[in-house]
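Appendix B. Raw example, untouched.
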Amino acid sequence: MKVLIYGVGALGSVYGCLLKLKGHQVAGIDHEAVAGQIERSGVKITGIWGEHSARLDRVVSDCDQLQGQAFDLIIVTVKAYDTRAAAAQVRGLLSESTHVLLAQNGYGNFEAAREFIPEERLILARVIFGAETLGPGQSKVSVIADDVILGSPTGKIDMDYLEKIAILCNDAGIPTRASQEIMKFVWAKIIYNSALNPLGAILEVPYGKLAEVEFSRTIMDGIIEEIFTVLQAAGQETLWPDANAYRTAFYKQMVPTTALHHASMLQDIQRGRRTEIDSLNGAVIELGEGLGVATPINQVVVNILKSKEIKHLAV
């Protein structure tokens, strides 16, 4: 299969490296400095999935450099705030059989991408393994909580094809399965990230510490309650019947397995980068406003996180 990785960062390096080692033709696109380094040195991953390295077939900094090439699958791994721009660029590379896999965090990536790419070409992924960038094309896989889940939010892609892509990823060493209920899994990750990620970045402590302190637990409880109220108003089902059931699983199962994990938002802030708060708690606030549901706790968390982000944002 001919694959293009749009964004050869932490996640993109993992997909690019493992798919290339499995024998697929893999190209990449990233910022000029990153693309140049990867073109010269290849990609490398370390961590819980072992050490692997590969040379991609081609790495460029602009989609125009790939015109005329046909790809079967384009995997988009950029930050959520870059999804719209990425979709606008890759639409010029679509053939009659190309599908685009959105492997990103948060809510709104599918909605942004379908402004430029037909829904029957868009696959949404819930990715729940952790990867950290060590350098251009170098990534460390540090944790995995479950399989990657693939699906079509509007049901416009046959399950047979989704299963084919899941098998392709599994064969490459990335545990993956397909589901007809992809949004339940996407929202499961959004709730988890919204409760832990911004608060972990604000307080600069690992997830386990947030659960140990009464005051931070109260804030997380409020975030979770507000999200479930919004989802109920939206008619969106989740993997849990209500907020109480989710909190039980959250504190007894989810947080303990990632107790030592530090928030990706904290890493972004420390590196002078934007966070994805707008696609997590910010998306919850926006959905709530449209449905007439107040989300004051999420709003306060967003305001504090953005204040900290602006303070550290690289000029």
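End of appendix B.
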